[in-house]
Design a protein that fits this description.
CATH class: Alpha Beta
CATH topology: Ubiquitin-like (UB roll)
Order of helices and strands: EEHEEE
Low-confidence stretches: none
Number of domains: 1
Mean pLDDT: 93
Number of helices: 1
Structural class: alpha+beta
Shape: globular
Largest sheet: 5 strands, mixed
Radius of gyration: 12 Å
CATH architecture: Roll
């Protein structure tokens, strides 16, 4: 199972999907496009304490984190 974690003002929401299931994979890719299109940054873990920002959907990523733009004031 792969997981997409969406961070927002209420905490986080986790969306698990089976990357071997074409329908689930298509929904995950659509969610990726919707979130990044809405301004979320996407990243995946590359090692302990290490992440890499991504700009396109990676069906091999076991865990993708989405976090909103930070707004300074």
């Amino acid at each position: 199972m792969a997981t997409q974690i969406v961070m927002d003002q209420t905490g986080d929401t986790r969306h698990e999907f089976d990357p071997d299931n074409a329908e689930a994979l298509a929904r995950a890719e659509q969610r990726f496009r919707e979130l990044t299109g809405a301004g979320f940054t996407a990243a995946f873990r590359t090692g302990p304490g290490e992440v890499t920002r991504i700009k396109s959907f990676d069906p091999t990523a076991q865990e993708t984190l989405f976090y909103p733009r930070l707004v300074g004031g």
